[in-house]
Design a protein that fits this description.
The complex is a heterodimer of chains A (250) and B (276).
Chain A lengths: L3 E12 L2 E12 L3 E6 L5 H9 L6 E6 L2 E2 H8 L3 E4 L11 H11 L5 H11 L15 H13 L5 E5 L7 H18 L2 E6 L2 H7 L2 E6 L2 E6 L1 H8 L4 H19 L1
Parallel strand pairs in A: 3-8, 3-9, 6-7, 7-8
Antiparallel strand pairs in A: 1-2, 1-4, 4-5, 9-10
Chain B lengths: L2 H7 L5 H17 L2 H26 L3 H5 L2 H29 L3 H5 L5 H31 L9 H27 L6 H4 L5 H4 L13 H5 L2 H15 L4 H32 L8
Helix pairs in contact in B: 2-7, 3-5, 3-7, 5-7, 5-8, 5-12, 8-12, 8-13, 12-13
Chain lengths: 250, 276
């Protein structure tokens, strides 16, 4: 693969006797979008947390922009960002205050102008001065996405970016992610169990099951290889086996 | 513009900017919440009023207190410096856990030592706000000025707030490791040190076997020094030196404990999961 931005090698995480992520390896090329696809508990979020350095791996290695994450984390973090349903922004601060604090944490200049630009792109203008905790789920997702895009990250990690959103808002969020990637050439790693989202946004898919990469490929390539009509059918086949898929169809 | 370009041209880059960002985050919180500001000043002021009345009673019934009327009031104010220093630091950290914000913070370029500096700075601001009411009321109601302690007050204040921070880091580490179920430690753990800190009585009052315990507390030396100044009118350089030397060890131990629990949290996956 040419110029991988993210390389994960034999990444493993054990919590006592439980192996949450088991020798996972994959890489994501510059400017492409990849998905970690899996059921709840498959190890997607744990893998994401290790790529961010929030969680120390039991074994294995993460390289970002060709540099070792464990050794150079603080040189890499300004070039990355993420959003996750497992982390919130302080609810009592207004949207503008939260974005200002994070702009300064990322060492960004032109904070006011940057926030205005994001507010326009993500349609936040109407609630910039409202406390983040008073927003609807859809509005909060847009604010989380604004925080994730604040530093124009070259590597963007999105954990279930459209979870708990209505179809219209989810579609809008996917459009924003598509535009950001097209405009900035960013590399995106998405963790999701939403097949339509993955098919629309991603060039490659890594299906996780039981902490391992059970299969990988392009969405269309996997559909053809498995002889299925949709990525969802491929996913069910991998997770349940062929018989399981048949039972589900009945 | 890429992330690396942004970092290279930013005026807010560097540790000072990140520490300032966290201070700004908690300043926003205080600025928009009058109950929080009231909470900071309420207890120190109420305690000051009660102990001031006790002092007025004792002054008329005890020749010792008649000579050193300010001992209790100074003790109340200075003990609160330590308590406010500790609770200010611990609560600011716990606030990030309540907000489920630790994942965002530690996926940003914020270093742990920058968080440590920010916590101390925010605690200092909160303590100064909290103490202002008590100090003001002591002067208005009882004509007692803590500033009469002179330059020694700076040494007392610094030593007590640093010891408060040391305990605060220890408590914050425990809460990070054991979860928000342990947050009540932030409110009561420091009071276990109060009897040995000898806030309102001389160290010699303690049973012989407890004196070595008090001797390793910087706070006990501060309050001994405070009494020497208020009762005898002498500045005890020995107590100040001991308090300062002990505090270096206490702060180092508190920060080391916090960092050890922080690393444990990264191993256990607590940073991106913990919350209300």
């Amino acid at each position: 693969m040419n110029d991988p931005v993210l390389e994960v090698e034999a990444l493993t995480k054990r919590f006592g006797a439980v192996t949450a992520v088991d020798a996972v390896s994959f890489s994501v090329a510059r400017g492409s979008a990849a998905a970690l696809l899996g059921a709840n508990g498959a190890g997607k979020t744990t893998t994401m947390a290790m790529i961010l350095g929030l969680l120390l791996p039991s074994a294995g290695r993460v390289r970002i922009f060709g540099r070792d994450l464990a050794a150079e984390r603080y040189a890499l973090l300004p070039r990355m960002n993420f959003s996750s349903p497992y982390s919130d922004l302080p609810q009592r601060l207004t949207v503008r205050e939260n974005l200002t604090v994070y702009a300064r944490l990322y060492g960004l200049g032109g904070v006011r102008r940057r926030i205005e630009r994001l507010a326009e792109a993500l349609d936040l203008g109407a609630f910039l001065t409202r406390p983040t905790g008073k927003l609807s789920a859809g509005q909060r997702t847009r604010v989380a996405l604004a925080k994730a895009l604040l530093n124009d990250p070259e590597l963007l990690l999105l954990d279930e970016p459209s979870a708990s959103l209505d179809p219209d808002t989810a579609d809008w969020v996917r459009g924003v992610i598509e535009r950001y990637r097209a405009d900035c050439g960013a590399t995106i790693l998405l963790a999701s169990h939403n097949m339509a989202e993955v098919e629309r946004l991603c060039d490659s898919v890594f299906v996780m099951h039981g902490g391992r990469i059970a299969d990988s490929g392009t969405p269309q390539g996997m559909i053809e290889r498995h002889g299925r009509r949709t990525l969802e059918e491929v996913f069910l086949e991998i997770v349940r086996g062929r018989g399981g898929l048949g039972e589900a169809a009945q | 513009m890429t992330g690396s370009d942004v970092a290279a041209t930013a005026p807010w880059r560097g540790s000072a900017g990140r520490i300032g960002a966290l201070v700004l985050r908690h300043t926003y919180l205080l600025r928009r919440s009058w109950p929080r500001l009231l909470e900071l000043t309420y207890w120190p002021t109420v305690q000051m009023i009660i102990w001031g009345l006790v002092t007025m009673f004792l002054v008329t019934h005890s020749s010792w207190f008649a000579q050193a009327a300010g001992v209790l009031l100074a003790g109340v104010i200075l003990w609160d410096v330590m308590f406010r220093g500790q609770i200010g630091l611990s609560l600011v950290f716990i606030e990030e856990m309540w907000a489920r914000n630790l994942g965002h913070l530690f996926a940003s370029p914020l270093r742990p030592w920058e968080l440590i500096c920010a916590l101390m700075l925010i605690s200092l601001i909160r303590t100064l706000i909290g103490m202002s009411g008590a100090v003001g009321f002591a002067f208005l109601l009882y004509a007692f000025s803590i500033f009469d302690l002179g330059f020694a007050l700076i040494g007392f204040f610094v030593n007590l707030i640093v010891m408060g921070w040391a305990v605060g880091f220890f408590v914050s580490g425990l809460v990070l490791r054991f979860g928000l179920g342990a947050e009540s430690l932030a409110w009561f753990l420091i009071f276990a040190l109060a009897p040995f800190s000898c806030v309102y009585y001389p160290l010699s009052i303690l049973p012989d076997w407890l004196e070595p315990v008090a001797a390793i507390l910087p706070s006990a030396h501060v309050f001994e020094g405070m009494r020497a100044l208020l009762v005898d009118g002498t500045f005890s350089g020995d107590h100040m030196m001991r308090a300062t030397a002990l505090n270096i060890g206490w702060l180092a131990a508190g920060i080391a404990t916090f960092l050890a629990f922080f690393r444990s949290a990264r191993t256990r996956g607590l940073l991106h999961q913990i919350g209300e």
